Amino acid sequence: MAQHSVPDAEKVRLAAAWAAAHYFVAIAGRDWLFTIGQPATDIERQLMAERYLFITAWNPPPGLQPREANLAADQRLQTRLVHEGLRHHPALGCDAHGGEVERGWLALDAPLPLSDALGREFGQGGTLAWSQGEPVRLRMLWPRPAGAFDDGYTDWVG
Fold first, then answer.
1. Is-contact 4 59, C-beta < 8 A?
2. pTM score, whole prediction
3. pLDDT tens-digit profile of 90-135?
4. Which of 117-142 are b and which e, b meaning 16 or more Cβ less than 10 Å from the residue's Cβ?
């Protein structure tokens, strides 16, 4: 979920793509699906927490960042999650058609200010964050551009 210099029209397109994507977290050898706008009840039963954060350090599209740079950024993110004392599990996001995959982490009990700060620190345009028992929400780390859709589950937090 890259945050490099992005035109407003591209921000709107990315938000729509991320809102439609499928996300998975690996727990005890099994992948669990979660999507924006839906509660993640099965995941919450497995991973008890008050808050959940999906975050990645990858910056596609392909060619923008070499794989090695994305792997190094991911390692830095893992180190930061450990430093912050956040339990975390491997996760990923992908489009519904098996396209581009962004590897990341589902971190537990990260307060929203820390979630947003980590997203910005790792150059992300958005993260997913939600509270236990509530639907998964997309947090866009840009100000809301003109023409942005309102799906009720996307927060433009600037």
1. yes
2. 0.93
3. 999 998 776 778 899 999 999 999 999 999 999 999 999 999 999 9
4. ebbeebbbbbbbbbeeeeebbbbbbb
